[in-house]
Every structure is written in structure tokens, then in C-alpha cells.
Write a structure and sequence with these properties.
By secondary structure, the protein is of the alpha/beta class. It has one domain: Spore Coat Polysaccharide Biosynthesis Protein SpsA, Chain A (Alpha-Beta Complex). It is built from 9 helices and 12 strands. The strands form 2 sheets. Strands 1, 2, 3, 4, 5, 6, 7, 9, 10 and 11 form a 10-stranded mixed beta sheet that branches. The chain has a two-stranded antiparallel ribbon with strand order 8-12. The two termini are 27 Å apart. 38% of the residues are buried.
């Protein structure tokens, strides 16, 4: 296992968190990686915080000329990527040290081009008592049903999936990437919790849920260029399978990560 991994990291005003995230990459047992941070015109101290880490030649820090959103930042990072393997880590989330090594081994042994792992969520400093899982195999139909995994768990083989570029979506732009990738390969689950999704906002309000439905509709209509009827039907289907995911694809746990 010696091929380069390109780690895609969009950032925006995460100066308070990005140090731990970069350290999470530096702690990886697999050392042949490049970290591509694309900053979307942060107005906090992200530049100052990242600067000392740029002494490591594996870390590249790119700034957008104007605030464009995560979709544009991810597109730019993917165009810059040089690695065979593409992985994703948002600028306030974390990996276990063996994440890259184990996932690459899993993919090479089984000749998989597109995989994800289990993950846990920390909400406002408190760990939710679940490990979030998903189907062992996500095919095209299941991918349209629901996005079963977190972005930070994903890795794919760029030589087999190709260059992914998505529409300028404010929300669900990560889901748009997977809907492209699934056209080239099924996605396979590595059943081990190696990623931690750190959420800082409060509980989701009913108003936010309505907005969530709207963003799913926009994903299908504007991101995938489906007509209004198909976009509506896909949105309803997504809501149904979202309920199924909550019931079926999370496991109760007493484990508290030491991060």
C-alpha cells in the first residue's frame, strides 16, 4: 500500500476546530497522503491557524477568490488532487489513526473502487450513543433511496471513478458526488467505526426539516437535472428511506471516543 491519497477538505470559519482535524490527518498510520484545504474566504483566524502546518509539504492551502460554497471548494480540490485514492474530511471532523490504512487495505483486498465506514456523531460536545452504519452494499437504486453514509467516511479510487465535478449546490453537494460515483461502482461498507462527525449546532427545528426537504428537491432538480415531477417523487422516496435508516442503520453503544 504505497499509492498517494488525496484528502479533500473544504473550510469556512473553522479556525476554532481545524487544528484538531489537521492533527487527525497527521496522526494517520498511512503516511503517503496530500491534504488539500480549500478555504472559502473565511472571516475568522483560519489563515493564522493553518499557517504553521504548511511547513509540511503534504499540506496545500488554497483560497477561493470569493465565497462560493462547499460545492465549488470540493470541485476545486478534486481538480487539484493527484492521488489514486480520494478521501474526504471536513474541517471540524476527525478520523482514527488507522482510518486510511485500513480502508485502503479493505479496498485492495476486495478490489473495491468506492467504500465507506461506520461513524459516530458528537453534538455540541456530547456523544450520541449510536454507531451509524448502513447497507453492506449500496447499489444505484439504494443510493437514490438515501445517502446512507457520512462524507468523512468515503474513499474512492479515482482511476476507476474518474473526476467528479458537481453543480453549485448550497446543500447536499456531497450527496451529489455519490450519485455520480455510483454510476461507476457500487459502494461497499467497511463495518468499523473510524470517523467522527462533529456537529456544533443545536437540535433540528421543524422549520429546518422543511428546508431539508426543499434542499433534497433542489438536489434532484438542479443538481441532477431531473424534471419537477421526478424530483418530487425522488424527494418523497428519500424521506421514506430516511425513516428506515434511523430505525435500521444505527447501533446503540456505550463507547465514548477519546479524542
Amino acid at each position: 500500500m504505497s499509492e498517494l491519497v488525496s484528502i479533500i477538505m473544504p473550510s469556512y470559519n473553522t479556525g476554532a476546530f481545524i487544528i484538531k482535524t489537521i492533527q487527525s490527518v497527521l496522526n494517520q498510520s498511512y503516511e503517503n497522503w496530500e491534504l488539500i484545504i480549500v478555504d472559502d474566504c473565511s472571516t475568522d483566524n483560519t489563515d493564522e491557524v493553518v499557517l504553521p502546518y504548511l511547513n509540511d509539504q503534504r499540506i496545500r492551502y488554497i483560497k477561493n477568490e470569493k465565497n462560493c460554497g462547499a460545492a465549488v471548494s470540493r470541485n476545486r480540490a478534486l481538480r487539484e488532487a493527484k492521488g489514486k485514492w480520494i478521501a474526504f474530511l471536513d474541517s471540524d471532523d476527525l478520523w482514527v489513526p488507522e482510518k486510511l490504512e485500513k480502508q485502503i487495505h479493505f479496498m485492495e483486498v476486495h478490489d473495491y473502487a468506492f467504500t465507506y465506514t461506520d461513524y459516530m456523531i458528537q453534538l455540541n460536545g456530547e456523544w450520541l450513543p449510536y454507531v451509524y452504519t448502513g447497507p453492506n452494499v449500496v447499489n444505484r437504486r439504494k443510493m437514490y433511496n438515501y445517502c446512507y453514509f457520512s462524507t468523512i467516511t468515503v474513499m474512492y479510487n479515482r482511476e476507476k471513478i474518474g473526476l467528479i465535478q458537481i453543480e453549485r449546490l448550497r446543500k447536499n453537494n456531497d450527496y451529489a458526488m455519490w450519485l455520480q460515483a455510483i454510476e461507476k461502482s457500487n459502494c461497499y461498507r467497511l463495518p468499523e467505526c473510524m470517523s467522527f462527525y462533529i456537529k456544533h449546532e443545536g437540535s433540528v427545528s421543524s422549520g429546518s426539516k422543511i428546508k431539508l426537504i426543499k434542499w433534497h428537491y433542489i438536489l434532484y432538480k438542479d443538481g441532477l437535472h431531473k424534471n419537477k415531477v421526478i424530483s418530487g417523487l425522488l424527494t418523497v422516496r428519500n424521506l421514506f428511506f430516511g425513516v428506515i435508516k434511523k430505525m435500521k442503520y444505527r447501533k446503540k453503544t456505550d463507547y465514548i471516543p477519546s479524542i
